[in-house]
């Protein structure tokens, strides 16, 4: 993959604003991601500063517009398209997909519908708003879900990340509690058929020559579920990068991840989360448009496995973003 696309730092390098923090449940993770991005950009000589996405942001951007922004915000602000839309209004280009694509990817049922339409495998699912759940009778609804999708099931918020509110349900009696836990983090629950297999994440990056899949990262959580604690607590998860996959399976996983990135209209970078079943078939679970950048995050692990430098990769992306005309989406 070479590093020529990333270039070297020079006087033409853009001034970059790294956006981190926010008010979501994932604020702490976002701050850690933002600091990692800041350090990586500065390591290759790019002028960058970090700023929270709060009431001071717009006046600062309008008074002194950066050449490009990197969105290191997780949760709704960074991933639902709203902040991207505001940056478009301010004429500030940014790394990552546009507001429209972010809105689709952020809503897991909508994204899964897009993937299913183009033949990309994703587990069967039902999306259930809390209001409908209550109106129609919880017991009757849950019985139908089990009849339709079987057991085990995966329950998680239809919008959100970092494994918050997610639970594996292996017995019908555990489903009500899982739904209550899910609704604590979102108004709609996504209940999908649980696929047993290897958890992998494929980061997709575009350094100027089209999107390409980095080596898959295999995720082995100690308790079997890659939840919030497993993601961000040292010692609870082991990662293998690249994943321990047969060459032909690794190639198929990369192909499916790229197809998902393309189908959702993404650009610059994304992370595709998949399960590889016992037969070696990949199933897309979700696609993240603002991947974590912390010391335990998967995109930096994949960059390292590819023999690349995170600062050079991000540098290539901010240069491309700075040269991109802004649009309103």
Quick summary:
The chain has 329 residues and is α+β, with helices and mostly antiparallel strands. The chain has helices spanning 27-43, 57-63, 76-79, 82-90, 99-106, 108-117, 130-136, 138-149, 175-183, 228-232, 247-263, 298-305, 310-322; strands at residues 16-20, 48-52, 68-71, 125-129, 153-157, 167-169, 188-193, 198-205, 212-213, 217-221, 237-240, 269-276, 282-288.
- What would you call the quaternary organization? single chain
**Which residue ranges are poorly predicted, with pLDDT under 50 across at least 5 consecutive positions?**
1-11
Instruction: Summarize the biggest pleated sheet.
Output: 6 strands, antiparallel
Number of strands: 13
SSE string: EHEHEHHHHEHHEEHEEEEHEHEEHH
Radius of gyration: 20 Å
Strand content: 15-25%
In one word, what is the shape? globular
What's the helix count? 13
Question: Could you give the distance between the termini?
Answer: 32 Å
Q: Quote the average pLDDT.
A: 92
Class by helix and strand content?
alpha+beta
Roughly what percent helix?
25-40%
Keywords: ATP-binding, Cell shape, Cell wall biogenesis/degradation, Cytoplasm, Ligase, Nucleotide-binding, Peptidoglycan synthesis
Organism: Micromonospora echinofusca
Subcellular location: Cytoplasm
EC number: 6.3.2.4
């Amino acid at each position: 993959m070479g590093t020529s696309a990333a270039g070297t730092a020079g006087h033409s390098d853009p001034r970059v604003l790294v956006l981190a923090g926010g008010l979501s449940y994932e604020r702490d993770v976002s701050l850690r991601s933002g600091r990692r991005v800041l350090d990586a950009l500065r390591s290759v000589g790019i002028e960058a500063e970090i700023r929270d996405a709060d009431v001071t942001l717009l006046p600062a951007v309008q008074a002194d517009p950066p050449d490009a922004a990197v969105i290191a915000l997780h949760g709704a602000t960074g991933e639902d398209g709203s902040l991207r839309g505001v940056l478009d209004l301010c004429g500030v280009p940014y790394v990552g997909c546009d507001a429209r694509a972010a809105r689709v990817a952020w809503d897991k049922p909508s994204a899964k519908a897009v993937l299913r339409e183009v033949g990309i495998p994703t587990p069967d699912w039902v999306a259930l708003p809390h209001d409908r759940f209550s109106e129609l009778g919880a017991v009757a609804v849950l019985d139908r879900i089990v009849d339709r999708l079987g057991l085990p099931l995966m329950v998680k918020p239809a919008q959100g990340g970092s494994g918050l509110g997610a639970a594996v349900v292996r017995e019908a009696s555990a489903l009500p509690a899982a739904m209550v836990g899910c609704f604590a983090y979102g108004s709609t629950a996504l209940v999908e058929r649980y696929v047993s297999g290897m958890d992998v994440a494929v980061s997709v990056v575009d350094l100027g020559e089209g999107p390409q899949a980095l080596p898959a990262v295999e995720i082995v959580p100690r308790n079997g579920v890659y939840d919030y604690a497993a993601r961000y607590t040292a010692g609870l998860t082991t990662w293998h990068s690249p994943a321990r996959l047969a060459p032909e399976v690794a190639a198929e996983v990369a192909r499916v991840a790229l197809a998902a990135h393309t189908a959702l209209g993404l650009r610059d970078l994304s992370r595709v989360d998949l399960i590889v079943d016992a037969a070696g078939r990949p199933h897309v679970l979700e696609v993240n448009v603002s991947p974590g950048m912390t010391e335990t995050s998967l995109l930096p692990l994949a960059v390292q496995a590819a023999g690349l430098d995170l600062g050079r990769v991000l540098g290539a992306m901010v240069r491309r973003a700075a040269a991109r005309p802004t649009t309103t989406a």
